[in-house]
C-alpha cells in the first residue's frame, strides 16, 4: 500500500483538527445554531488506508471504480442530430393498446426518421402470463403497455420493422420478466419465418425474475422453477443467439421499492451472484455468458447527488471484485459491470405535484450521472403523468443533456471525484454496508433462499416505510410536495403532445379479445394440445431445457396464457411471504 500521507503528518492533521473542532468550528455552530452532522468536513484522516491502484485504478480497468470505459463516448445520435431529436422514441419505454396500435405508433415514429428497434412495454396481463380473454385481465388490457397473447401479436408489432429495419438490423428491448422465455421464443420463431439466422439477432429482455419477488410483484411461478426457466433461456441464448443479452439485472425497481443506496447495491450484487452461479452450474463458461448480463443502473429515487455518485462507484468496484475473486473470471472485461456507467434516474424520483420541478430534479441527477461515469442521461419531467413521454419533454431533456455536455463540460474529466477525501470515504462507507447485506444473504443460502424467506422484501419494505414516514412528517423535504405548498406558490401549467392515440387505447380491450377469439378458431388446436402436453412432461424433468419446446408451442400459435397454465400444473404459483 502506498501511503499518501506519512503517519507523522496524519498525527499532525489529527491534532490540528481537534483544535479546529473545539475552537473555530464549535464557535461557528453555536453562532449559527447549526447541527454538527449537517456541516461535515473531510480530511486525509477519513481515508487513511486509501490505495489508488486498489481502490480507484484507471478508467476502463479493474476495479472499474473510475468508470467502465477508458474514454467517454461522443454524443449519442439523438443528442447530436437535431433532425432526429424527437424520433428516438424506442429509446423510451413504449407500447400501448393492441399490437396494431403499437405497430402504427412505431410507423408514425419512423415517418419522423426513426432508425432504432423497439423498447416494448407490455400490459399487466401479459406480464402475469394471462391471455386477454381471461376474466382477471379485464380492465387492464393494453393499459400499461401492449397486449401480447401469441406469436400473431408479435408478428403484427414487428410489421413496423422490415427491410432496413429488419430483425437482423435492429436491437429489440422488452420489459418482461416472468414470461420472458415465451416472448423470446416468439421472437425466435418470427426470425425463422423471415429467414433470419438466430445468431444474427440482437436484443435485451429484462428477464430479471429475482427483483420481481423483491420489489415489483409480476411473478407467476415460485422462485426456483422461475430460475429454472431463466437457466434454460441462458443456456439456449448462449448457444444459439450469442449476440442477445440474457437479461438486464435491474436496480431501479429495488430502490423504488424502498432500498437505500447500501441495500440496493447489496441486493443487486447478490442477485447477480445467483445468476452467474446458475450459469456456471449449467456448464457455461463464465467469461462467455457473463458479458450478456448487463445492469440497468437507472436507480435514483432522490437527488442526493453525493450518495448516488458514491453508490455508482462502489457498485462497479464490488462487482469487479466478485467476478475476479469469487468466480475466477480470467478475461478482464468479464469483471466490468456492463451498463453500470453512471447513476441514471428512476421514474419514482419524479412527482406529479408541480411537475416542471422534475426537470430540475432530472438535471441534478444528470450532473451526478456525468460525474459518476455516465453520459448525463435523465428521465423526462412528465414521467409521473402516464406511460410514454411528450415530445416537448423530450426536447427539454435532450437540451439539458447538451448543456451539461457542451456548456458545463462536465464530461471532459473521467471520475472527477477520484482521490476526494469526502467521496472516497463515502464510497467506502456504501461498500462496507453493502458487503454486510451480501454476507447476510450468503449465510441464508444465497439470493433465491433469501427471497423465499422474504429477506430482501422486508429490507425494501422497511426502507419504504421509513422514507414515506419522513416525507409525511416533513423530516425529508420535497419541494412542492410537503414543503413550499402555500396558496402563494404557483403551479406552472404545461402543454403536452402525447404520441399515443387516446381513442385507440380506450377500445383496445374489445379489439384484442376479438383478435384472440379469431386466432383460436383458425389455428390447429390438436397440435397445440400435443405440444402443451409435451411441455408439461418436460417441465417435470429438471434437466430438460424447455426453450425448444416453448418455440414449438408458440410456432403453432399456442397463447402465452395457455403455455403458462401448462407450466403452472407442474410449477404451481407463488404467494409472497409477506412482512
Note down, in words, how this protein is organized:
- It contains 23 helices and five strands.
- The chain is mostly helical and 579 residues long.
- Among the domains are: 7-56, no CATH class; 221-485, TIM Barrel, CATH 3.20.20.240.
- The strands form two sheets. The chain has a three-stranded parallel sheet, with no helix packed on it. Strands 4-5 form a two-stranded parallel sheet.
- The longest helix is centred in the N-terminal third of the chain and has 26 residues, at 7-32.
Give a concise summary:
The protein has helices spanning 7-32, 52-56, 77-80, 99-110, 124-127, 151-157, 180-193, 209-216, 223-240, 252-256, 261-281, 286-289, 305-326, 357-371, 391-407, 421-443, 447-453, 455-473, 502-506, 508-522, 525-539, 547-555, 560-571, and strands at 119-121, 171-175, 202-205, 249-250, 295-296. It has 579 residues and is mainly α. Residues 82-91 have low confidence and may be disordered.
Amino acid at each position: 500500500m502506498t501511503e499518501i500521507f506519512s503517519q507523522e503528518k496524519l498525527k499532525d492533521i489529527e491534532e490540528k483538527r481537534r483544535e479546529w473542532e473545539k475552537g473555530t468550528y464549535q464557535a461557528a455552530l453555536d453562532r449559527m445554531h447549526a447541527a454538527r452532522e449537517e456541516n461535515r468536513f473531510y480530511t486525509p484522516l477519513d481515508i487513511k488506508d486509501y490505495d489508488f491502484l486498489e481502490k480507484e485504478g484507471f478508467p476502463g480497468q479493474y476495479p472499474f471504480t473510475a468508470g467502465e470505459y477508458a474514454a467517454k463516448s461522443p454524443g449519442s445520435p439523438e443528442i447530436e442530430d437535431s433532425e432526429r431529436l424527437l424520433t428516438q422514441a424506442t429509446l423510451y419505454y413504449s407500447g400501448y393498446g393492441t399490437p396494431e396500435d403499437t405497430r402504427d405508433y412505431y410507423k408514425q415514429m419512423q415517418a419522423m426518421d426513426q432508425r432504432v428497434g423497439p423498447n416494448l412495454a407490455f400490459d399487466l396481463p401479459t406480464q402475469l402470463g394471462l391471455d386477454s380473454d381471461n376474466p382477471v385481465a379485464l380492465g387492464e388490457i393494453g393499459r400499461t403497455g401492449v397486449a401480447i397473447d401469441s406469436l400473431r401479436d408479435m408478428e403484427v408489432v414487428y410489421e413496423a420493422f422490415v427491410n432496413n429495419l429488419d430483425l437482423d438490423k435492429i436491437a429489440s428491448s422488452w420489459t418482461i420478466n416472468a414470461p420472458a422465455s415465451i416472448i423470446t421464443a416468439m421472437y425466435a420463431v418470427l426470425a425463422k419465418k423471415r429467414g433470419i439466422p438466430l445468431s444474427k439477432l440482437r436484443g435485451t429482455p429484462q428477464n430479471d425474475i429475482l427483483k420481481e419477488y423483491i420489489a415489483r410483484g409480476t411473478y407467476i411461478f415460485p422462485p426456483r422453477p422461475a430460475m429454472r426457466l431463466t437457466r434454460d433461456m441462458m443456456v439456449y441464448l448462449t448457444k444459439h443467439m450469442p449476440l442477445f443479452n440474457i437479461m438486464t439485472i435491474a436496480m431501479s425497481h429495488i430502490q423504488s421499492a424502498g432500498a437505500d443506496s447500501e441495500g440496493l447495491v447489496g441486493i443487486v450484487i447478490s442477485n447477480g451472484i445467483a445468476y452467474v452461479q446458475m450459469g456456471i452450474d449449467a456448464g457455461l463458461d463464465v467469461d462467455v455468458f457473463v458479458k450478456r448480463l448487463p445492469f440497468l443502473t437507472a436507480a435514483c429515487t432522490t437527488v442526493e447527488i453525493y450518495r448516488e455518485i458514491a453508490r455508482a462507484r462502489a457498485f462497479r468496484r464490488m462487482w469487479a471484485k466478485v467476478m475476479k475473486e469469487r468466480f475466477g473470471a480470467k478475461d478482464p472485461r468479464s469483471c466490468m459491470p456492463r451498463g453500470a456507467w453512471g447513476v441514471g434516474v428512476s421514474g419514482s424520483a419524479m412527482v406529479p405535484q408541480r411537475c416542471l420541478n422534475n426537470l430540475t430534479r432530472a438535471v441534478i441527477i444528470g450532473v451526478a450521472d456525468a460525474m459518476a461515469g455516465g453520459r448525463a442521461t435523465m428521465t423526462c419531467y412528465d414521467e409521473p403523468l402516464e406511460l410514454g413521454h411528450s415530445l416537448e419533454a423530450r426536447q427539454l431533456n435532450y437540451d439539458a443533456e447538451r448543456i451539461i455536455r457542451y456548456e458545463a463540460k462536465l464530461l471532459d474529466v473521467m471520475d472527477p471525484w477520484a482521490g476526494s477525501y469526502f467521496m472516497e470515504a463515502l464510497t467506502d462507507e456504501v461498500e462496507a454496508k453493502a458487503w454486510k447485506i451480501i454476507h447476510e444473504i450468503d449465510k441464508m443460502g444465497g439470493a433465491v433462499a433469501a427471497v423465499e424467506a422474504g429477506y430482501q422484501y422486508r429490507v425494501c419494505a422497511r426502507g419504504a416505510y421509513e422514507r414515506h414516514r419522513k416525507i409525511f412528517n416533513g423530516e425529508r423535504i420535497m419541494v412542492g410536495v410537503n414543503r413550499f405548498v402555500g396558496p402563494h406558490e404557483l403551479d406552472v401549467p404545461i402543454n403536452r403532445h402525447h404520441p399515443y392515440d387516446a381513442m385507440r387505447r380506450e377500445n383496445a380491450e374489445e379489439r384484442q379479445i376479438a383478435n384472440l377469439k379469431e386466432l383460436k378458431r383458425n389455428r390447429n388446436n390438436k397440435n397445440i394440445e400435443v405440444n402443451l402436453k409435451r411441455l408439461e412432461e418436460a417441465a417435470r424433468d429438471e434437466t430438460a431445457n424447455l426453450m425448444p419446446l416453448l418455440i414449438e408451442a408458440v410456432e403453432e400459435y399456442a397463447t402465452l396464457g395457455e403455455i403458462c397454465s401448462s407450466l403452472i400444473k407442474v410449477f404451481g404459483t407463488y404467494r409472497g411471504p409477506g412482512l
